[in-house]
Each structure stands twice: as structure tokens, then as C-alpha cells.
Design brief:
Number of domains: 1
Radius of gyration: 14 Å
Strand order of the largest sheet: 1-6-5-4-2
Number of helices: 1
Strand content: 15-25%
Structural class: mainly beta
Number of strands: 7
Amino acid sequence: MTPEPKLDLDQLTALAAASAQVTQACDCGIDAYREWTRVPAAFPQAQLRSIGTLAGDPYADPTFAEYHPHGTNYWSPDAPVALQHFPYNRCAVQQCSVCQRCCLTYVEAGGYYVEPRIRALAGQTIVDVAAPD
């Protein structure tokens, strides 16, 4: 199995810009997921194709530190997408094969549950900040 390509800030920003240009309606509804959302049971998963990953070294322990300098939180629609912070450092970037919109996905694994989550990729939320100490 070939590993997914690691996307950098410029690539992610370009995908977000292209996704923002999509105007057609689609069953995926990616554009409605402005904040982290549990992937609905009826989501058309088969329409998604992998573009790449934001995850780093699979043998390193990624941080759980979040980046919220302006009072946002994990659930905020305007929460910054900081690639080296949680949860973005665990995300896959996927694209709907029908409408071409892009989204971020990852699996939240709590004590007794596993929950796939999704968030639309929006360029205005992507920030370039260093990894936490």
C-alpha cells in the first residue's frame, strides 16, 4: 500500500481555494460542515477520494495542543486550521469525486468510542504557525 502524500501549507491553501469555487449542489454536503462534525450515517462516503494527509511521522507522538489565539474552540466554525496542532496533525484531506469540494477528516478515539469527524476545507481558516513546544 502506497502511503498518502503529505500536503504542505501551500498545497492545502490551493485545494481550499479550488473548493471555494465550487457552486454546484451535491449530496456530499461538505460545504455545510464549517466546523468539526460527526460524519452522518447517510454521508456518501463512496464519493470521497483521498488527496493526502496532514499527519507527520507515523512513529512520532503528535501533540494534542490546539491553537485558538482569538477565543475560538474546537467546535468553532472559524477555528484556525493550524497544521501542526490538534486535530489537524491527524487529518486526511479528501475530495468529493462528484463536486470536487475538499474536506478534512480524522477519527476521534475516546475512551469507549470511535467517531469519524469531518470539516469543510476553507481557506480563510488556514494559518501558518509553528508547532507547539
